Amino acid sequence: MISRYFLLLCLLFPGALVALPVGAPLAFDDPEQAQQYQQLLRELRCTVCQNQSLVDSDAQLAADLRRQVYERTTAGEGREEIIDFMVRRYGEFVLYRPPLRSDTWLLWFAPFVLLGSGLLLWWWILRSKRAVSEQEYDIRED
After folding, report:
1. Dmax of the chain from CA atoms?
2. Per-residue confidence (pLDDT) for residue 72, from 0 to 100
3. How does 9-23 read in b/e, with b if 16+ C-beta sit within 10 Å?
4. Which residues are registered as beta bridge partners of 44?
5. Which of 14, 67, 95, 115 is packed most tightly, with the most Cβ within 10 A?
């Protein structure tokens, strides 16, 4: 009987589902730890999801990573220590912004190279079409 009322409530007020608590609130020793935790969750990527941070991901691995970040934060580890641990354990894919090095320069500059190439190709096509249309116009005048 309760399930019918709950279903009716969900159908009539779908926003009420958002208000249901997901888990116990996390406790931190000080606000700086809470801020560090939230910042790390935005900077670290779920390794099984398609480009989602740990905040956005619902995957089980993301929940485990959030738990590890929480445990290390409350243990007093600093931001760099936690990031180093995650990179050692999961690789640099866990970072949203990998460092600029000789082996990652393609990640950083490929979008700009592709955009520049596309603009150059677009300009070249417009120029060649303009030259063809001017040539046809010259032929018609003769």
Report:
1. 90
2. 94
3. eeeeeeeeeeeeeee
4. 95
5. 95
Coil vs helix vs strand at 30 = coil
Token digits of residue 95: 């970072």
Q: Could you tell me the residue ranges of all domains in the chain? A: 25-98, 101-142
Task: Give 35-42's long-range contacts (Cβ < 8 A, gap of 24+).
Answer: 36/73, 36/78, 36/79, 37/69, 37/70, 37/73, 39/79, 40/69, 40/73, 40/79, 40/82, 40/83, 41/66, 41/69, 42/96
User: What's the rounded Cα separation, in Å, for the pair 76 and 82?
Assistant: 10
Which fold, 25-98?
Helicase, Ruva Protein; domain 3 (1.10.8)
Mean pLDDT, contiguous 10-residue spans, the chain (142 residues): 61 54 68 92 87 87 92 93 93 81 79 93 90 68 58
